[in-house]
Amino acid sequence: MAHQAGLSDKNLRTLVANQQLRHPIQNVYIAAQAPDDIPTRIAMLRLVVPEGCFIVDRTAAWLHGTEMALAPNDHLTPPKVSIFRHADHGRLRNELSRSGERTVLARDLTEIGGLCVTTPLRTALDLGRFLSRDQAIACLDALLRLGFFSAEELLAEVPRFAKQRGVRQLRALAPLADGRSQSQGESVLRLRWLDAGLPRPQLQIEIREAGRVVYYLDIGLEELLLAVEYDGARFHSTAADQRYDLARRDWLAHERGWVVRAFRGGDIYGRHDAEAALQAAFRQARASLGERTYIALGQLAEVGTRGRSAPTRR
């Protein structure tokens, strides 16, 4: 369609580089100002999904409302659309799709905007088996967060995949899935926490002041006043963001006695040492709990003075 309108591939690349177009999936471009909502995703997929196929895996999760589940650096190339046919119907062979054959039950499929797609539950079960461990837990969390199925329903479906590819990983990860995780980075950081042998953490811990919630801490143990947070590039990259984060964590430490450790992408992906850092933070929090609890209760020499208010974002 773009070629028919007189645009070359070079023109399209230039428009994407200038942020006038987005290139969410292979061979599909959209105006940068267009919303990233379900109707828009449906319209894009209808351009490339042929009859007699159903959408699966990463593309299905995206269509249901999650962000595209990408590995580090996957964003450098627009992802292919994951489209499968029923078993014994053959795979699609084209440059646009990641395809194959898959056996599904009638209850595994649903329709969205005229497109056949695996249900959120079946999509979670497949991604929990087929993706890398880090991406799998992030997708399980994200799909659970949508609210279409419960953690109990996810666990109840796992036995049906006995002896199938990836079921061991699914058995290990499904009990860990938690819809309260807010991003892929948070999900992976929680996985590193569990890999470090630490107790199962709480998520989105509320910090209150004057009866209202002023902060949520990503992951932690309230009984130890210990929290860890993932600082992703989207919300923690500017100088203003970083000043706010420092002020917030300083307040939590000095006014509430919390030990808060921040992690970025490089700390948890690739050749990471997050487990050792998490174990060290846990030991520190356990060893200093009494002193910090004393601070949190306001029983130091400064008792009776007015504490600092929680910093707010401008």
UniProtKB/TrEMBL annotation:
Gene3D superfamilies the UniProt entry points to: VSR Endonuclease
Domain of life per record: Bacteria
Name of this chain's protein: DUF559 domain-containing protein
Naturally occurring in which organism (per UniProt): Nocardioides agariphilus
